[in-house]
Amino acid sequence: MHIVNIHKAKNWLSQLVDTAGQGEEIVITKKGKPVARLCALTKKSKRKPGLFKGKMWIADDFDAPLSNDILDAFEEK
User: Fold this and answer.
1) What are the residues facing 28 on neighbouring strands?
2) Which CATH architecture does the domain made up of 2-38 adopt?
3) 0.85 surpassed by pTM
4) Quick one: which of 9, 25, 36, 71 has the most CB atoms within 10 Å?
5) CA angle centred on 41, ends 30 and 45, rounded to 5°
């Protein structure tokens, strides 16, 4: 972890971003107190279509209108 004051961070931002991109964490301070952290973004994994195939199902009446007693429960009648 690198600790850098805000004035140095302004002058060296490009280099600090490169350092953070390589996995190092940068803490930026102002008047000796930590105020921000610069770190690498994690890469999102690619979505794999069909991952839950056969593990989930949706009822045939999923989008059917609700019965009056259920509607009344939602509306606190």
Assistant:
1) 4, 36
2) 3-Layer(aba) Sandwich (3.40)
3) no
4) 9
5) 165
Q: What's the helix, strand, coil split of the chain in %, to 5? A: 30, 20, 50
- Please count the CA atoms within 13 angstroms of the CA of 70 that sit on its side-chain side: 4
Instruction: Classify residue 56 by its DSSP letter.
Output: -
- Which strands sit side by side in the sheet containing 33-38, from one edge to the other? 2-5, 26-30, 33-38
Cβ-contact 38, 17 below 8 angstroms: yes
Whole-number Å distance between alpha carbons of 32 and 29: 6
Q: Write out the chain's pLDDT in tens, 77 residues.
A: 899 999 999 999 999 999 999 999 999 999 999 999 999 988 777 888 888 888 988 999 999 999 999 999 988 87
Looking up tokens 């991952």 gives 51
